[in-house]
Amino acid sequence: MIDHYISGHATRLSPEAPVPVVNVGHETVTLGGAGNVVENLLSLGAQVLVSGITGNDLYGSQLSEILVKANVQTTGIVVDDERTTTVKTRVLVGSHQMIRIDREVSHPLSINTESRLLDAVMAYMNNADIVILSDYNKGLFSPGLTQQIIEIAKSKGKRVVVDPKGLSYAKYKGSFVIKPNRKELCEAANVEKITTDEELVNASRTILSQTDADYLIVTLSEDGMAIISDTEFTKLPVKASEVFDVTGAGDTALAAMAYALASGFNVEESCNVANYAAAIVIKRIGSATTNINEILDYMSKN
User: What's the predicted TM-score (pTM) here?
Assistant: First the structure.
């Protein structure tokens, strides 16, 4: 998806309604959604093969252009004439967001579009070290398509890491890692709240029993990160010394963890790298990225 920013200044109210009149200064278009995961992977030094859906529109073309300039292969992007490219437009006055306008279609893909997307993913699979499914609940990851991708990946010896959405994680069955945050885990496990380690483990093992995933990695905001399997529970404390903006920190953690796993680190080591990476980006404003040198430097100082 695309993040579209309109920045300007406001000095008066509209005579038509009690709202400010924004005089536009400039506009920017950046990668959003799973594109933020792509940018984080690129910053870490990964080669990225990306697949997904765009509409046959201006924003879809802009998205592809951004990826091509970043040396990302885009042959896996399927253009669907029946959908619009997902765009989140934010109107900013100074540092304040006045309004957000979303353009999106979230109904399931057609059978033909699913088939085209699966073919695109399969074409990438042999060259992949790891597979990331970044789900934004926009209709792409149907249970059938998701299971086909996971089964193909496993048949080729590729581990699948999932950033989940929605109330049911059954479609992620067979994944290596599923990475919800605390709120997402509450919703998927159908529990009211998670405040203790016991509640965290119980909710996580409910999901593990539904999905047969090897690990659930739960991001816990100011409480760090937890690693849960059928037999173990490890909690990694938060590494941040300052917090300015948590926007995109989950995408940074996902990318860093997947990159470390693909590089040969074990799960706990990979989560530790992800924890440090997230600690770096939350000290910056907006969706930020980091790199290996910054992570190593931050680890050596902490």
Answer: 0.91
